[in-house]
Amino acid sequence: MPLIIRPARSDEYDDIARVWMNSWVSTGLAEASPFLLANLRARVRHEIERGWSLYVADDGGTLGAMLALHMPNRYLDQLFVAPEYQGQNLGRQLLAFTRSQLPDEIWLRCVRENEKAWRWYEREGFVFEKEAVEPMNGFVMKYYRWKKQGIIR
């Protein structure tokens, strides 16, 4: 049975933070810790207050991924697939869903050292725009943009 992409519920925020942490840890750029999990739990709530549209990929009650969009800015803020669901085209399904929500233009950024992620976005049609240091975490971020063919801004 295919996973269902749907809006997240507030009672799932802790599980979403766990998916986020486990996926981030799977990049090799961080280690799992109670501190990181607590940080991500707080950030989920904070970002929703700041305008996130938060979605999950639901596999019969198990969360396979989280997707956070900031619609006014046409910004794909977070796309994280749980390690046990990686390699099953779930990221591509989430990106297709994102394009259905933001059909004309999408911005995103990713950590420069997360080469697997940014190479994937490039294969999916995103164009590199710039690099900049993120002051909150010190990572160099690569900024990307996708525009629907024929859209000129």
Task: Give the structure's gist in a few sentences.
With 153 residues, the chain is an alpha+beta fold. It has 4 helices and 7 strands; from the N terminus they run βααβββαβαββ.
Give structural notes.
The protein is of the alpha+beta class. It contains four helices and seven strands; from the N terminus they run βααβββαβαββ. Strands 1-2-3-4-5-7-6 form a seven-stranded mixed sheet. The N and C termini lie far apart (40 Å).
- Backbone structural class: alpha+beta
Q: Major sheet, described briefly?
A: 7 strands, mixed
Q: Total strand count, please?
A: 7
Termini gap = 40 Å
Please count the helical segments: 4
Share of helix among residues? 25-40%
Low-pLDDT segments, ≥5 res: none
Key phrases:
globular, 153 residues, alpha+beta, 4 helices, 7 strands, seven-stranded mixed β-sheet, single chain
Secondary structure elements and pairings:
Layout: E1 4-7, H1 13-26, H2 34-49, E2 53-59, E3 62-70, E4 75-81, H3 90-101, E5 105-111, H4 115-123, E6 127-133, E7 140-147
Parallel strand pairs: 4-5
Antiparallel strand pairs: 1-2, 2-3, 3-4, 5-7, 6-7
